[in-house]
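Researcher: We're teaching a course module on how sequence relates to structure. For the next exercise, students receive a sequence and then see the predicted structure as tokens, so they can try to spot secondary structure elements on their own. Here is the exercise chain.
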Amino acid sequence: MSLKRDEYEPYHRIGKVLGKLLSEESKRIRPRDKLIEICERIENRIIEEGFFPAFPVNISINEVAAHYTSPPDDIREVPEASIVKLDVGIRINGYIVDAARTLVFDDKLQKLADAAQSCLEAAERVMKPGVNLQQVGQTIYDEARRWGFKTIANLSGHKIDRYKLHAGVGVPNVPIPVDYKLKVGDIFAVEPFLTFSNVPGVAKPSKEVYIYSLRKKIRSLSKVQEKIIFLAESRFRKLPFAERWLVKSIGRRVSEELSFLTRKGALTSYPVLIEAKKGFVSQAEDTFLITEEGALPLTRI
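Model: And here is the predicted structure for the students to work with:
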């Protein structure tokens, strides 16, 4: 559903905070920084600002396209000569803004990052009321090719509703049919993912899983499992949450319980996604409010 004008204000407020946070953290992060310290620092900053993370901070490195957040006791660091995608979401009262930046620690990869940003800006220019999302996908795809790269075909942006990070309508990064025309009051996160032209441009799930969300309630659970379901619904509001967020409440064996609840269909899991041939990936993302004049980026500062 589309927003009414009196619902615009929370998005502007959240977007301003997220834009400032991403700008500051993008300058702060350096090679050899511990990933878990980055994730927890940003999540704590969001809470200190009076908001909540809409999902665990994603910090995806090199060929990892999406869905990496630190597990408990993560020892990984930002590598030298790497490309890093920092994807962050903020929520308050169900209003969500989602954005990402690509950090480059190897000059040879700067063009890949710049191309993703150019694709995002090209999408912004065509996003107006009445425009079909297929045209947005075509625009992103064509811009990536103009730079000499290709888009990740099976990753897309998404419509956002209250308490729904993915509200059932995708924004493709390739020219595929989409039966949706933009309307005034729509909120869409647009996120081009780019890689090199000599690899498949397809993201495949790995065996690593550190992010989950509530899918449905089921019966005949242990007390620990019931507590996980309770937290997923009440504290995380059915939005994605991190395994490490549960360690203090559940204990170190939480990964076993999460795996069990996923197999039983109570939780949805989000495996870490890797480019099929390990091609390096860049990402640019902003959340846009569709107005009568066009697309308004919410995190640009």
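Model: If you want an answer key for the exercise: The first helix runs from residue 8 to 28. The first strand starts at residue 52 and ends at 53.
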